[in-house]
Amino acid sequence: MHISEAMTDYYNDPDFDMNTWITVNLEAKGITSLDGFETKNLQVLELDNNKISDISKFVPGDNLSVLYLFNNNISNIDTFNVNNLEDINLSKNKITDISNFDVKQTQILSLDQNQITDIKNFDAKNLQELQMPLNLIETIDNFDVKKLDVFTVSDNKLTHIKQFDAKKLSTLCIHNNQIEIIENIECQQLEYFHMKGNPIKYISPKTIKQIQNLKFKKFSIDYPLTEFDSEGFRKDLTEKEKEEVRKKIG
Length: 250
Hints:
Elements: H1 3-11, E1 23-25, E2 44-46, E3 66-68, E4 87-89, E5 108-110, E6 129-131, E7 139-140, E8 143-144, E9 150-152, E10 160-165, E11 171-173, E12 181-186, E13 192-194, E14 202-203, H2 205-213, E15 218-220, H3 239-248
Parallel strand pairs: 1-2, 2-3, 3-4, 4-5, 5-6, 6-9, 7-10, 8-10, 9-11, 10-12, 11-13, 12-14, 13-15
């Protein structure tokens, strides 16, 4: 069903004039296509729990600032023109790659529960909040958060954080991953830092010092920082385990 049909059916008016509407909620209406749909004066469009798979031919109007597409069948967003969208929810879709996704002026992006494996080449631009829990991300390396204030990448497959500039972040959630090694997290303004649920074996002394100097509102970790030695290794590791970690450190 095209979105235009869904709107006519939902509002039960063949003369329905969308020019008079600012917010439209068409959740779970069996919509499959947005092709050629003009949002006109709409500012908020909610399309959660539909069957949309392709948004490449949908161009949000200049007034549309909020678009929710939670729980659809979208897999490719490379050519999606976000225009003036400030808040986009694409959670629970089938997206695997965001390296070519141009977020332009978007401030809030939700990509929870997709199949994304890599964020290395993603340009966060003006994003202030990026939600990516429950994906398949394995590594954070040279990811430039730019203006990000909140970044959630919990419940992924992270094993190694190499170089992560988080100087502007106030909230960082990396809990429930498989992180063993943290080489460098630049964190100067963090207020909330959640890293429980990780079998951490090594945190660089530089990162430990930065964390110790911060005044957190909430900080969670399975191993107190006092359990790491002057080289950054967890004190209960065997020499063999330390050597294995050294081989993985860049």
